[in-house]
């Protein structure tokens, strides 16, 4: 009962313990992806125009999220993590994730890679970072939604170990396309390594 109250109180006031702060604190640094150097950093408000540009490039001129939605997410530092990948100061990819201790879930809210850098491992790398963070926080699963028509993305997620968990009818704003719910259980990952 006391544990439920503590979780409720933390959720109500968006209080996370020091463990969350430590795990979600990313130092900007260079990373190697398929033998190419990129710069990984926490997303900043100044990155929002480029993030919107990536969305336009990926989604046929549309921006599923607007600048205020991204700004709102970036303000919530206690339970959100947004990362960007750059090369030669060009923003190439980003990912966002919500970490919920009460649901024991890390939910990937948004991921996009500019078209001319797709199939180079950037999306795979960013999702793997979020899975690692979920594991460090001892959460049970990582979840996401993907358009039913986006078979390529579904394959990437399945290659990482995600399984289809259901369909959300009319999920996407605008065209009301269905979304595929996908989940990876952290325990299954641990067992697969043993």
Question: Overview of this structure, please?
Answer:
There is one protein chain. By secondary structure, the protein is α+β, with helices and mostly antiparallel strands. The chain has 2 domains: 2-139, Gcn5-related N-acetyltransferase (GNAT) (Aminopeptidase); 144-194, no CATH class. 36% of the residues lie in helices and 31% in strands. The model has no long low-confidence stretch (mean pLDDT 87).
What do the pLDDT scores average to? Answer: 87
Write the element-wise H/E pattern from the N-terminal end onward: HHEEHHEEEHEHEEH
Low-pLDDT residue intervals, each spanning 5 or more residues: none
CATH class label of the largest domain: Alpha Beta
- Counting DSSP H or I runs of 4 or more residues, the number of helices is 7
Counting structural domains, the number is: 2
In CATH, the architecture of the largest domain is 3-Layer(aba) Sandwich
State the total count of DSSP E strands: 8
Backbone CA Rg: 17 Å
Question: CATH H level of the largest domain: which superfamily?
Answer: Gcn5-related N-acetyltransferase (GNAT)
Q: State the helical fraction.
A: 25-40%
Q: Name the strands of the widest sheet in spatial order.
A: 1-2-3-4-5-6-8-7
Distance between the termini: 35 Å
Largest sheet properties: 8 strands, mixed
* Shape designation: globular
What is the beta-strand fraction?
25-35%
Highlighted features:
2 domains; single chain; 194 residues; 31% strand; Aminopeptidase; 8-stranded mixed beta sheet; 36% helix; globular; 8 strands; alpha+beta
């Amino acid at each position: 009962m006391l544990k439920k109250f503590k979780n409720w109180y933390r959720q109500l006031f968006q209080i996370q313990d020091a463990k969350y702060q430590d795990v979600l604190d990313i130092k900007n640094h260079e990373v190697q992806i398929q033998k190419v150097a990129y710069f990984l950093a926490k997303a900043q408000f100044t990155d929002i125009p480029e993030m919107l540009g990536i969305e336009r490039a990926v989604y046929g001129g549309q921006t599923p999220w607007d600048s205020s939605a991204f700004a709102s997410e970036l303000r919530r530092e206690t339970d959100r993590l947004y990362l960007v990948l750059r090369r030669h100061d060009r923003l190439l990819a980003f990912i966002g994730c919500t970490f919920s201790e009460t649901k024991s879930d890390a939910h990937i809210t948004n991921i996009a890679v500019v078209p001319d850098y797709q199939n180079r491992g950037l999306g795979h790398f960013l999702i793997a970072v979020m899975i690692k963070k979920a594991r460090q926080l001892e959460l049970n699963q990582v979840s996401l939604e993907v358009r039913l028509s986006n078979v390529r993305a579904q394959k990437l997620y399945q290659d990482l170990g995600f399984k289809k968990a259901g369909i959300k009818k009319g999920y996407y704003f605008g065209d009301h396309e269905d979304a595929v719910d996908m989940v990876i259980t952290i325990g299954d990952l641990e067992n697969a390594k043993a």
